[in-house]
Amino acid sequence: MEIIVLPDPDAVARTAADIIEERVRRGPSVLGLATGSTPLGTYRELIERHRHGLSFAEAQAFLLDEYVGLPAAHPESYRSVIRREFAGHVDFAADAVHGLDGEAADPAAEAARYEASIAAAGGVDVQLLGIGTDGHIGFNEPMSSLASRTRIKTLTEQTRRDNARFFASPDEVPEHVLTQGLGTILEARHLLLLGLGEAKAAAVAAAVEGPVAAICPASALQLHPHVTVLVDAAAAAELAHTEYYQYTYGRKPAWQGF
Ligand SMILES: N[C@@H]1[C@@H](O)[C@H](O)[C@@H](COP(=O)(O)O)O[C@@H]1O
């Protein structure tokens, strides 16, 4: 795991975009996209680079999760959010951006279909991840099995409160979601976890320096051979070993498989 502490959210966005750009330029790629506010700067940076020639025409993308019960056209469905914040501004081919159908009559069948389509694409090359204040990734809430696959989950009250800002009222936040499982996420070849702001400091510290435990789903990343964690100074505030992370970052090329 490489932990890179950067001065501010802009530096996190630029570094995340560097990693994604490097993979996209290397040839056909499969990107794993996250929603939430954390990756928005990265998406803005990638859109800007697209305006300067970076093409996503050979890339495919898979979303991490989706609310159950929201139609695709709802402004807060994750399929809408990704189109509005990123995919709609770059040149992905038609049908290259895949999401879960939150309105599927049979959520288990939808989850199985999604797993199969990720596999058919050859798996995810770079998976972008945010982190919830409770340590969730995707919508894998605390106590999710570290081996879980794509499935329906019930949101915690805390996550519903955290996400209420995107809806007209807290009651409108769906109670259920479909999410890639921790086992699914761990199959991506490179995991890129972003943490911004002091509200994430405790979750980042638990994920990176705490024990691997279902109480902090993001701690499952410690089991993966190629993880890059990009945090701003505020989100790094509760890490105990920042001196070491800064020291190593200055001494070897970042994210290239150390
Ligand atoms: N399902 C998403 C996660 O993928 C995201 O990481 C988390 C944090 O959101 P934010 O980045 O807005 O803090 O929110 C949601 O619950």
Automatic annotation (TrEMBL):
Q: Name one Pfam family in it.
A: Glucosamine_iso
Hey, which pathway is this one from? Amino-sugar metabolism; N-acetylneuraminate degradation; D-fructose 6-phosphate from N-acetylneuraminate: step 5/5
GO biological-process terms attached to the record? carbohydrate metabolic process; glucosamine catabolic process; N-acetylglucosamine catabolic process; N-acetylneuraminate catabolic process
Question: What does the record give as the reaction this protein catalyses?
Answer: alpha-D-glucosamine 6-phosphate + H2O = beta-D-fructose 6-phosphate + NH4(+)
Q: Which ranges of the sequence are coiled-coil?
A: none
Activity regulation (record text): Allosterically activated by N-acetylglucosamine 6-phosphate (GlcNAc6P).
Site (described: Part of the allosteric site): S144, R151, K153, T154
- The record's EC number reads 3.5.99.6
* Keyword terms, alphabetized: Allosteric enzyme, Carbohydrate metabolism, Hydrolase
GO CC annotations, alphabetized: cytoplasm
Catalytic-site annotation from UniProt: D65 (proton acceptor), D134 (for ring-opening step), H136 (proton acceptor), E141 (for ring-opening step)
Q: Which GO terms describe its molecular function?
A: glucosamine-6-phosphate deaminase activity; identical protein binding
Describe the location of the Glucosamine/galactosamine-6-phosphate isomerase domain by residue ranges: 11-222
As for family, the record states: Belongs to the glucosamine/galactosamine-6-phosphate isomerase family. NagB subfamily.
Q: What does this protein do?
A: Catalyzes the reversible isomerization-deamination of glucosamine 6-phosphate (GlcN6P) to form fructose 6-phosphate (Fru6P) and ammonium ion.
NCBIfam families, per database record: nagB, PRK00443.1-4
Cited PANTHER family: GLUCOSAMINE-6-PHOSPHATE ISOMERASE
Q: Know the name of this protein?
A: Glucosamine-6-phosphate deaminase
Source species: Sinomonas atrocyanea
